[in-house]
């Protein structure tokens, strides 16, 4: 094992996270050729210094209120956790439901799991719509300007179409979940999500542990307007969230 000074280890960690936006604990152990406990201490210190954000299984780049990863970048983060959330979320769907499925990587995994008969799915994602059609699921796609980084239809046309629709259930994503609100970096995406929450009998926010405690630029809605599906079993914020809404810990 090569003996690397703490300052050198921390610099290597920062450079890796800046390049990849997210890095696992195992990757850093191999990269630094050091123990897991040493890496954890380094990550904790860097988190305290606001140079990265600790998440389940590793760390991610410290994001500003408006910073947002692309779907490609998100797709390699916390994959197993997102799969668990998606598998559970499909149990919340009943036969004959009309549901809205938001753009996003966890919701993409939910689409793979939908198996109930007679379900109609409304989505604002071109890629989601294509996968739904392949599964012979009745699908309605919301039009509008497509935001390339997240594959979400946004803008006036999307809002106008959504204003005319009602849903039994909605499954949406959020970049941040705190004790009071769910948030996202983009104002126009926030408007779409707000419309969906207003028009759904019940809204589920699918959020892996990395989203809990994070705050983004725009408030989508208050926490009591949604129900939360997450793998963040032991997060200190969950007890506060549970005082205001239902939380499914998967």
UniProtKB/TrEMBL annotation:
PANTHER family: HTH-TYPE TRANSCRIPTIONAL REGULATOR SRLR-RELATED, TRANSCRIPTIONAL REGULATOR, DEOR FAMILY. It comes from Streptococcus loxodontisalivarius. Keywords: DNA-binding, Transcription, Transcription regulation. SMART domains: DeoRC, HTH_DEOR. Signal peptide: none annotated. Gene3D superfamilies: 3.40.50.1360. Residues 6-61 form the HTH deoR-type domain. It comes from the Bacteria. This is DeoR family fructose operon transcriptional repressor.
